Amino acid sequence: MVIRFGTDGWRGIIGWDFTAHNVRACARGVARLLARSDLASRGLVVGYDTRFASESFAAEVAQVTTGSGVRTLLCERAAPTPTVSYNIVHHQAGGGAIITASHNPAPWSGFKYKPDYAGSASPQVIEALEAEIQGAIQEPFPLLSLAAAREQHLLLDIDPAPPYLDHIARLVDLPSLRASGLTVGVDAMFGAGAGYLSRLLAGGSLRVTELHAERNPLFPGMAQPEPVAHNLAELLRWVPTHKADVGIALDGDADRVGLVDEKGRFIPTLQVFPLLALYLLEVRGERGPIIKSLTMSRMVERLGELYSVPVHETPVGFKYIGPLMMEHGALAGGEESGGYGFRGHIPERDGILSGLLLLDLMVRTGKRPSELVEMLFAKVGPHFYDRLDVPFAPEQRASTQERLASRRPTTLAGRRVVGRDNLDGTRFLLEGGGWALVRFSGTEPLLRIYAEAESPQRVQRLLDDARALAGV
Question: Hey, what CATH class is 172-380 in?
Answer without folding.
Answer: alpha beta
